[in-house]
């Protein structure tokens, strides 16, 4: 029997929300070590997957694990955890739904309607909105409930179907926008991208409503880098695509990209 200190395993994690999430992963590890069974986490974002791996890698003699999002471009993934002597596990804990797309239904509408059924956010994976179909991924433990209860997104009736084939997933499309900022400080960039005041930007950062690369960031003064992904609660998210140039007045022209 493997004995470990849960608090010691997460001592390198400072954010309390991250600590809470990785404690759940540790509980899954405990189940595998105690009962010698396969289990899986809820959906984790890339930052949480990274933190989970930092813990899972301490148990490589006893367990194995695989990260899976049910498609090769997956952003949100679950982690299968199982005894190390297992060599061929079934990856069957994610179900896929789709419905014919409606032009006015966006990612947030799908997410809001599913959560509105009383489902936890962590049970829902990627949501991919395409011109022909909109796909979304869920833990299979809630699949039957969704199949029988989700018949409307926003104000529109939908024809929902469960599918296995992911060969026709929509490509991610972006809108590109050039903005001018005084500096690369996070509060400046958020202010310029979202067209809000710098004071509002600072307040959102201080209130822990901002994530940089999926991790909560509460420091206004840090500088962003190319490829950084920034999300602001209730405003959505954008990515720093490229630093284009510096103006004669010393300002910086940034190109950002936003999911359509």
Summarize the structure.
By secondary structure, the protein is α+β, with helices and mostly antiparallel strands.
Description of the molecule:
The strands form four sheets. Strands 10-15-14-13-11-12 form a six-stranded antiparallel sheet. The chain is 27% helix and 30% strand. The protein folds into three domains: 6-83, Ribosomal Protein S8, Chain: A, domain 1 (2-Layer Sandwich), CATH 3.30.1370; 94-163, Alpha-Beta Plaits; 174-259, Structural Genomics Hypothetical 15.5 Kd Protein In mrcA-pckA Intergenic Region, Chain A (Roll), CATH 3.10.290. The chain has helices at 6-9, 16-35, 46-56, 107-115, 143-149, 186-194, 198-206, and strands spanning 39-40, 63-68, 78-83, 94-100, 124-129, 133-139, 152-153, 156-157, 161-163, 174-181, 210-212, 215-216, 229-232, 236-246, 252-259. The mean pLDDT is 93. It contains seven helices and 15 strands. Helix 6 crosses helix 7. A hairpin with a 2-residue loop joins strand 11 (210-212) and strand 12 (215-216). By secondary structure, it is α+β, with helices and mostly antiparallel strands.
Descriptors:
260 residues; 3 domains; Structural Genomics Hypothetical 15.5 Kd Protein In mrcA-pckA Intergenic Region, Chain A; Ribosomal Protein S8, Chain: A, domain 1; 7 helices; globular; alpha+beta
What topology does this entry show?
Layout: H1 6-9, H2 16-35, E1 39-40, H3 46-56, E2 63-68, E3 78-83, E4 94-100, H4 107-115, E5 124-129, E6 133-139, H5 143-149, E7 152-153, E8 156-157, E9 161-163, E10 174-181, H6 186-194, H7 198-206, E11 210-212, E12 215-216, E13 229-232, E14 236-246, E15 252-259
Antiparallel strand pairs: 1-3, 2-3, 4-6, 4-9, 5-6, 7-8, 10-15, 11-12, 11-13, 13-14, 14-15
Helix pairs in contact: 2-3, 6-7
């Amino acid at each position: 029997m493997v004995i470990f200190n849960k608090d010691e395993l997460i001592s390198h994690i400072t954010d309390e929300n991250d600590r809470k999430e990785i404690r759940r992963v540790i509980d899954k590890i405990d189940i595998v070590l105690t009962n010698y069974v396969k289990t899986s986490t809820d959906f984790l974002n890339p930052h949480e997957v990274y933190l989970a791996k930092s813990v899972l890698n301490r148990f490589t003699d006893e367990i194995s694990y695989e990260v899976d999002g049910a498609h090769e471009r997956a952003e949100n993934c679950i982690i299968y955890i199982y005894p190390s002597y297992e060599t061929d596990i079934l990856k069957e804990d994610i179900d896929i739904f789709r419905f014919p797309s409606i032009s006015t239904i966006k990612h947030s509408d799908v997410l809001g309607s599913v959560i509105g059924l009383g489902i936890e956010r962590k049970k829902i994976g990627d949501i991919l909105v395409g011109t022909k179909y909109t796909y979304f991924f869920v833990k299979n433990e809630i699949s039957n409930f969704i199949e029988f209860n989700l018949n409307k997104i926003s104000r529109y009736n939908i024809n929902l179907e469960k599918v296995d084939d992911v060969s026709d997933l929509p490509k991610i499309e972006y809108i590109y926008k050039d903005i001018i900022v005084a500096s690369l400080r996070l509060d400046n960039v958020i202010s310029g991208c979202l067209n809000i005041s710098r004071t509002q930007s600072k307040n959102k950062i201080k209130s822990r409503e901002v994530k940089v690369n999926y991790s909560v960031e509460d420091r206004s003064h840090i500088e962003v880098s190319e490829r950084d992904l920034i999300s602001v609660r209730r405003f959505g998210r954008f990515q720093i695509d490229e630093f284009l140039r510096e103006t004669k007045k010393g300002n910086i022209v940034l190109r950002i990209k936003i999911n359509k």
